[in-house]
Design a protein that fits this description.
By secondary structure, the protein is mainly beta. The chain is built from 4 helices and 29 strands. Bound molecules: CU-O-CU linkage (C2O) and copper (II) ion.
Length: 452
């Protein structure tokens, strides 16, 4: 498989079956990645005898993995073969505003039968993703999402056998058609969760892993609303990175949570008896909403096989030099996530009004702000900012450790987070919103105007 580092060899066969399809780079130049994504209906046999009618990119759910390295020019030719308009948003990538994929804001929606050419440099290593920003609850819910992996040239060798895991879920009716998004006030407040949990578009796939060999799991939560709390009985994870590449230092976590839109870079060394199976599971997680407490859901069966090669080398040092943003003259900008609901109507919003009616946040190119995002509701909201990374801060304004670059962060009920952002020279109107997409579409989506 192209691009598979040789360290993957012992597990390559198994990882290949589970791994997402890879996008074909049509451009021979080493620093240009040119791919075509055809948004189209996809028919899948989810389980024997269970056919579902999804949408995907070029026949795949998730869409094919786009591989690049920092500084590459990525060109994506989108063909819309759906019956609905669509766009592509490159979640987390610091693209120019015109490439951000927001219909009627940064581009017209791409109508059925039409195409659009996206082109941008990927400046930063990390796991990113693409998805529509048109009718996103329905379109992501039907299967439209795909990963972008920008490899970090400074990753030390021997980190582990790398597998990209795109987590999502799916709700379908008896005919295998995607269920329409929630429409009742309760349903919107809860957010659309499908009952079928998918890993790389598969139901409970298996992966052969060698006893004592480290795995590097690049995890993306592409679900519309579902939070995933990951666990493997008796094991803990070394979390080495998140949305915007590696942390300043690794963390040990037993049950890492990945909220919609977020990514995690996890190391785990499966241990146990040869021939046994370890389950990577999603444990019950509460986000405050009136959904029945979900049971534990199996994600991937890790089948322990004999260690074909030597065990993994000891974990190399994983410090990354990240300079905290200078916030000495930064102004604080309040953003409140609000909810007004009765039996018939629910208005999610920014500062008490639907985001489209809220005054945009204004910012200057070159300036640094601290966004103070206050959740006034009894529910969790994953807050996502387009176009720029933020650095999570403590209540006193000092950087949260380890340092990291993020674009999506959970804001627990009735609490606030402080996010430092420096606006590099990409002026324009950028969105910020809850990545529970029912909430975004119900009004929890505001604008940030970056000007010279
Ligand atoms: Cu992944 Cu505007 O979102
Ligand atoms: Cu929300």
């Amino acid at each position: 498989m192209p691009g598979m580092p040789s360290i993957d060899q012992p597990n390559a066969g198994a990882a290949t079956a589970l791994s997402p399809a890879e996008a074909v780079d049509r451009d021979p130049r080493p620093d240009v990645v040119a791919v075509t994504l055809v948004a189209e209906p996809v028919v899948r046999e989810l389980e024997p005898g269970r056919t579902v009618h999804l949408s995907g990119y070029s026949g795949n759910v998730p869409g094919p993995l786009i591989r690049a390295k920092p500084g590459d020019l990525v060109e994506v030719h989108l063909d819309n073969h759906l019956t609905e308009p669509t766009t592509l948003h490159f979640h987390g990538v610091r693209v120019p505003n015109a490439m951000d994929g927001v219909p009627d804001m940064t581009q017209p929606a791409v109508l059925p039968g039409q195409s659009f050419d996206y082109s941008f440099v990927v400046p930063d290593a990390g796991l990113y993703w693409y998805h529509p920003h048109y009718d996103s609850v329905a379109e992501l819910g039907s299967g439209l999402y795909g990963p972008i992996l920008v490899a970090d040239p400074s990753d030390p060798p021997g980190l582990g056998d790398e597998v990209v895991l795109v987590l999502s879920d799916l709700g379908v009716d008896q005919n295998g058609q995607p269920l329409p998004p929630a429409s009742t006030p309760d349903g919107i407040v809860s957010g659309s969760e499908g009952s079928v949990v998918l890993v790389n578009g598969l139901v409970h796939p298996r992966l052969d892993v060698a006893v004592g060999r480290r795995l590097r799991l690049r995890v993306l939560n592409a679900a519309r609303s579902r939070y995933f709390k990951l666990g493997i009985a008796g094991q803990s994870f070394t979390v080495i990175g998140g949305d915007g590449g590696r942390f300043s230092a690794p963390l040990t976590v037993t049950e890492p949570v990945v909220t919609p839109g977020e990514r995690l870079d996890l190391l785990v060394t499966p241990s146990g008896a040869e021939g046994s199976t370890l389950e990577l599971v999603a444990r019950p997680v509460s986000r405050g909403v009136p959904l029945p407490e979900s049971a534990e859901a199996p994600l991937v069966g890790l089948e322990l096989v004999a260690n074909a090669s030597s065990a993994s080398p000891p974990l190399p040092s994983l410090e990354r030099a990240i300079t905290p943003l200078d916030t000495s003259v930064a102004s604080e900008v309040p953003i409140a996530l609000t909810l007004n609901a009765d039996e018939t109507e629910v208005v999610m919003g920014i500062d008490g009004v639907p985001g489209s009616q809220a005054e945009p946040v204004h910012a200057q190119v070159g300036a640094t702000q601290i966004l103070v995002v206050t959740n006034m509701t009894p529910y969790n909201h994953p807050f996502h900012l387009h176009g720029f990374f933020f650095e999570p801060r403590r209540e006193d304004g000092s950087p949260l450790l380890p340092l990291e670059r993020k674009d999506t962060i959970d804001v627990p009920p009735v609490s606030r987070v402080k996010l430092a952002v420096t606006y590099d020279d990409r002026p324009g109107m950028w969105m910020f919103h809850c990545h529970i997409l029912d909430h975004a579409e119900a009004g929890m989506m505001g604008m940030l105007h970056v000007m010279h």
